Every structure is written in C-alpha cells, then in structure tokens.
Amino acid sequence: MCKLLEGKIAVITGGSRGIGAAIVRRFATHGAQIAFTYRSSAAQAEALASELTNTYGVKAKAWQSDASSFTQAESLIKQVLDTFGKIDVLVNNAGITRDNLMLRMSEAQWDEVIQINLKSVFNLTKHVLRPMLKNRGGSIINISSVVGLFGNAGQANYAASKAGIIGFTKSIAKEVGSRNIRCNAVAPGFIETEMTDQLDEATRNAYLSGIPMKRFGKAEEVADTCVFLASDMASYITGQTISVCGALNT
Ligand code: NAP
Prior knowledge:
The protein is α/β, with parallel strands linked by helices. It has one domain (9-188, 220-241): NAD(P)-binding Rossmann-like Domain (Rossmann fold), CATH 3.40.50.720. The chain has nine helices and seven strands; from the N terminus they run E-H-E-H-E-H-E-H-E-H-H-E-H-H-H-E. Helix 4 (107-134) links the parallel strand 4 (89-92) and strand 5 (138-143). The model has no long low-confidence stretch (mean pLDDT 96). NADP nicotinamide-adenine-dinucleotide phosphate is lined by residues 13-20, 37-41, 66-68, 93-96, 116, 143, 145, 188, 190-191, 193-196.
C-alpha cells in the first residue's frame, strides 16, 4: 500500500473514541507518528496507543489534555515537540454536543460547547503555528460539521461553534498560506459514533430520509478525507471546507 503520511508527525485532539480514533488509526496505517489527546477515557486511549505501536509499528503517545484550556494546549505542544521533534499536521477534532432549543438552552450549555469546540481550535492552532513556521510547512485540519453550514434546530450552540471554525479556517489559510501552511475544514454529515448513538429513533430516521446516499457515514470515511488533506496530495488545497455527508447538504 502507498503510505501517504510516512515521516510526518501528527497531533490529533480527541483521539480516544469515535471519529478521532478512526483518524488516529488511518494516519498510523499511512505511516504517520502520532500524538493524540483525550479528556477522560484514559484506558481506551492507552489501549489505542499500544495498538498503534504493536499493529502499525509507528511511534505513538496519548496525552490527557483538555483542548479548551489555553495553558494545557501550550504545555501539550511543548511536550509533543520534546517527544517527536516537530509537528507536520494538527487535526482539531475534539468536540461535544449539548443540544437544547434556544428557549431552554442554559448559559452553561452555550459556554461549554463554544469553549470545547471553538476555543480549542484557537488554542491548539495558536501554539502549533510557530513550530510549523520553523518547519517551513504544515497542514491544519479542523473538524466542523454540516450543521455549521446550514444550521439545525436545537443545536444553535453547536452550529455556531462549527460555523465559527469555518471562518477561522479561511482566515488562517489566508494568514499563513505564503508560509506553506495549509488550513482546511472537514464537515461530516451524520456519522455513526457514540455521539450520534445518543439520538432517538425518530431523529435518526428523519436524518436518514434526508441523506441522498441513504446511509449514515463511517468514521473511517471522515478519516480518509483527513489523510488526503494532511498529505502532499493536497499541497495546493487550503481554506476549503470539504463535506463528507452523502450529499446531505447539497
Ligand atoms: P465522540 O465519539 O463523542 O468523541 C469525542 C472525542 O473528543 C473523545 O475522544 C473525547 O475524549 C474528546 N474530547 C471531548 N472533549 C474534549 C476536550 N475538552 N479536550 C480533549 N478531548 C476532548 O465524538 P465524535 O462523534 O467522534 O466527534 C468528533 C468530532 O466530529 C467532533 O468535533 C464533532 O463535533 C464532529 N462531528 C461529528 C459528527 C457525527 O456524526 N459523529 C458529525 C459532524 C461533526 P474522551 O474519550 O476522553 O471523552
């Protein structure tokens, strides 16, 4: 198999479960060395780190690091640089939902989603840019959502955070494009993970009927898009948002 990420060092936030874990595995399959983070599921993260070394033969390490904390992001990037020497790819994947209709949404639900989904992207990007400038290149991939493109009732906090990521992505692409640092967003549609398992049957069926491909997406299909954007195959692609949604938003 042609390995697209051989020699690259990647940092992936929220890599212990779901889409993040799929990105971690696909990056390892393509030869990347991997630093990934988690918030609380330590056992799952350590098991995944061992799997990466034993199954894929790549150097890998898991860090407990809250992506919404500016200081923890700073310390994480320092430790990754000490361990791996450089950073070629950052995937800002960590994210949560705290759904509620606007009339019932609490300030805490709004703040938590914005802090974890949007401020985290600022935190990690801020601290990874200098090492990428020194390295004369890099690829930043931000996991947004189709909900950030067309909104969703009951998810105003989540949609705002994911739309914010798209504006941030375009701005960073314009700021650092001349330094060979690319920044793109991936907007998954309905992907089967623990996050979406929480939806009730009626909501799931409503989503399914609106998907032209008539199936939900797989975490691996989002991960493969990230492999492409991280690789030199995407060397002239920056500032873009790629939807992985079976034409849900089309
Ligand atoms: P998930 O299964 O709930 O996994 C979330 C991951 O993020 C876990 O590894 C979790 O760590 C980590 N995390 C949560 N808060 C964190 C924090 N403050 N700091 C560091 N890590 C944190 O979610 P998912 O469905 O894979 O979603 C991944 C991304 O894709 C999110 O940004 C989500 O918004 C986006 N997305 C998902 C879908 C979908 O259909 N699933 C669709 C569109 C976009 P722990 O394991 O320690 O809790």
